[in-house]
Amino acid sequence: MLEFFSVNNIAFTILGYPMSYIEFIGTILYLWSVWLIARKQMLTWPVGIVSVVLYMALFYQIRLYSDTLEQVYYLGASVYGWWRWNASRRGTGKVGDFRYSSRRSLIMVLAVTIAVSFVIGAFMSRVHILFPTLFPEKASFPYWDALTTIASFTAMWLLAQKRIESWYYWIAVDVIGIGLYYVKGVRFIALLYVILLGMAINGLISWNKTSKTPEDLAC
Prior knowledge:
Layout: E1 10-14, E2 17-20, H1 21-38, H2 44-61, H3 65-92, H4 103-125, H5 127-130, H6 142-160, H7 166-183, H8 187-210
Antiparallel strand pairs: 1-2
Helix pairs in contact: 1-2, 1-8, 2-3, 3-6, 4-6, 6-7, 7-8
């Protein structure tokens, strides 16, 4: 059974890229979870959790330990989001209101996201100097890479809070991701981000259509 989830267990090859079962299933479940959350379906959280666990196992096997730890955050955020959405449904039978945050919150969250991204980007730009044994090569696009990571964390937290602006963060992450992965020659992942960009735009439109007005973004 465990062999099925090995990265060496190849399902098929696409454009010369060997696709393992664990990566294929994890990707399909992830795309499904995005499709579900765009429609405000509670099922998005358990589906997303399974996807996160699969990606965690995948990254661990290929020794991408930072990405493995990143999945730990997504796992916690997904569990919290599932609890948060379910708690709001108990009293009314509905998932709850989906709306924008106040103007003050919008500015504060954006400022923190940019500031933390800059700090981490600055650190990663020098990590090959600070820890040459662990990181013998200079990081590629450290600031953009840091921004996509921190913005993804922000977006996930906002999704759990049912905040519409979460989709703007996902759109920004996807646009940057397309450029980064295309330049680095990882065309398959770049294509995946194109699909995610379309789904994020659809999610934004869907949430805007069925949500309350942002109350003029009052403070």
